[in-house]
Amino acid sequence: MNNNIKSKTLADLMRPAALDEIVGQNHLFGDGSPINNMAKNKFVRNMIFFGPPGVGKTTAAEIIAKTCGKTFYKLNGTTASLSDIKEIAEKTKTFEGEHGAGIVLYLDEIQYFNRKQQQSLLEYIEDGRIVLIASTTENPYFYIYGAIISRCNIFEFKPVTCEDIEKALDRGIEKMRELFSSEGFENISVDSGAKRKIAEFAGGDVRKSLNTLELAFLSCVKNSITISDIEKIIPKSSMYYDRDGDEHFDLLSALHKSIRGSDENAAVYYLAKLIEGGDILSPIRRILCAASEDIGLAYPNAAVIVKSLCDSAVQIGMPEARLMLAQAVIFLCTCPKSNSVLIAIDGALNDVRNNAGKSDNIPIQLKNLKDLKDENYLESIGGSQDYLYPHNFKNGYVKQQYLPDSLKSKVYYKFGENKTEQAALEYRNKVVREQL
């Protein structure tokens, strides 16, 4: 066997040579799919690929360029500069009369390009000198300049399922047996449990699964690779996790929405993923927020209970903290729900912002008591109005104007349709009736 081939990683040797060999992206590259049809017709247009690592974005760009007969150049957003782009653009001059249509520039991790760098791409893709295929692991609508997005077709790459990864592993096993037959690897078997463990560990990343398989072969001391062998070579936490990336915020969003939707099973699952990723502070923030945003006055003590559980989690730390956080999450899921607090404060904030710069006079009876004793001040505003002290009236309630004149009929808080808030509404109606 050629030593140059042996020096390459299994993932490199297994790199697909055609679109239909890319694992798990049938929606993009299967028969009749948009990209497949374009490539077959020798067309290539500006595109943005987004999705997690190891799912075929770079490979797809290379295959598309080759299939369409284009020259392929690759840059990485973490290291490339404007001069690199200009240097590639200069090469378009060699394509006489074609205006550079023969060049495909693949820009990996485009989100690391700043606004100015991204803008510099526009003149080249606008006039067709360069066909841009950019990739990102982040949501392009958050990280890529709008003018670039408007000139590109966007395609999402999905994490590869365990079933599809296992198919890639089967081919990888055959390749390893072939490569190292002289070392006695031709008879090594990988049991189904071990393959499933590798696939689960990969988290949708085909490259990661092949790297793990290769390590299992190279460290094997017997003729069979079992699940216990795989467990020895993988870290305890196998989840791909980027605290600054979309995956992190997607998990937090899923946790919060599961609490709001009263699905304790889903909420505990997303909490577990966050904990396994080594993060407890971010879920604590979401849990505390949910206590007021989604439960609120339907169960006012929920905020107190959850705060106590979260404080205990921080004080005790992992692994025991998982118990307090799980208790808080399950408790919130099973609480009655109300967003009346959210609606009230957001409505008030909206009016405050819309009235910025306008003078909404506070009713005189609510102003500083010092002002109410100043006769000159009272005369300047046209008289006085006595403040009615609620505690001097039955049930501690008396009707008087509290909001400014321009908003005096505004209703921000509406009692929620739950037992606690309806009881509060009933009491409010009672004290109002008894004053009449």
Task: Write structural notes for this entry.
Helices cover about 50% and strands about 5% of the residues. By secondary structure, the protein is α/β, with parallel strands linked by helices. The strands form two sheets. It has a five-stranded parallel beta sheet with strand order 2-3-4-1-5, with helices on both faces. A two-stranded parallel sheet has the order 6-7. Residues about 95-100 have low confidence and may be disordered.
Provide a short characterization of the protein structure.
This protein has 436 residues and is of the alpha/beta class.
User: What is the residue-averaged pLDDT?
Assistant: 83
The share of residues in helices is: 40-55%
Calculate Rg over CA atoms: 32 Å
Question: What fraction of the residues are assigned to beta strands by DSSP?
Answer: 5-15%
C-alpha termini separation = 99 Å
DSSP, total strands: 7
Biggest sheet overview: 5 strands, parallel
Features:
436 residues, 5-stranded parallel β-sheet, 22 helices, two-stranded parallel sheet, alpha/beta
